[in-house]
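Example 3.2
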Amino acid sequence: MTNKLIIDYDYDFGLIGIESKVKGYKLAWLINSVLGVHLIKGDDIKLTLPQQNYLLISNFLYKEEYNLMRLLKNSCERVEKGKVSHENLIPECGDFDYFILLEGCEWEIGVIQKIISKLELLDEVTGLGVIEAGQLPSREYLIF
């Protein structure tokens, strides 16, 4: 008899897709200026995959006591048997270059809409969208 552990994650976070061709550090600086936050470059997130493969995800982080904001680059490095290739973190959202992931009690839908309104003012941002993380086929890549 084989037992199987099934884990159902809670995808209780907001997710905003951003289309922008600027570098991550510049986008983080622009977001900091319009939202009044302080995103700082964090270590790349190493997402372990089967057979000792992994993804390296560039991210910027802003953390308060009960809230967290991450700016994630959609294009990440896949390391497979020592070889590096590039792929999208969320392939079904290939139009987006970055994601803002919002965790915590203050990031409700009204706040997310205000964030989008402010980001729309940036010339460097060419597209935005709210994404239902729980509906994404590759949503498990967003659990850190």
